[in-house]
Amino acid sequence: MGTVSRWNQEYDERRLGIDNRGKKKYQVELEDIDILKKSYALLMEIRSQQHK
Predict the structure, then answer these.
(1) Cα gap 49→32, rounded to integer Å
(2) Residues 3, 44: Cα–Cα separation, whole Å
(3) How many whole angstroms from its chain centre is CA 30?
(4) What pLDDT is stored for residue 2 in this prediction?
(5) d(CA 2, CA 18)
(6) Which H, E and C letters describe 33-48, residue by residue?
(7) How far is CA 7 from CA 28, 31, 46, in A?
(8) Which of 2, 18, 27, 52 is 20 to 30 A from residue 12's alpha carbon, by CA?
């Protein structure tokens, strides 16, 4: 895969510009899981507010 193709793929996946050099794979995954948990909690809060 060429550089520009990789950049396009990373842009589509919202990963362009994220620098994971020096991080272990599991550290990145744990950060991603934490972000997903917080996003889900906010979504549930918004939904509960909409149903009031």
Answers:
(1) 26
(2) 39
(3) 11
(4) 83
(5) 18
(6) HHHHHHHHHHHHHHHH
(7) 19, 22, 33
(8) 27
Residues 6+ away with beta carbon under 8 Å from 16: 7, 10
Q: Are 7 and 16 in contact (CB under 8 A)?
A: yes
**Local structure of residue 22 (DSSP, 8 states):** T
Quote the CA–CA distance of 43 and 37 in Å, as a whole number.
Answer: 10
Collapsing DSSP states into helix, strand and coil, what is residue 26?
helix
Q: For residue 39, what pLDDT band results from cuts at 50, 70 and 90?
A: very high
* Residue 44 reports pLDDT greater than 90: yes
- CA-to-CA separations, 46 to 34, 35, 37, 41, in angstroms, rounded: 19, 17, 14, 9
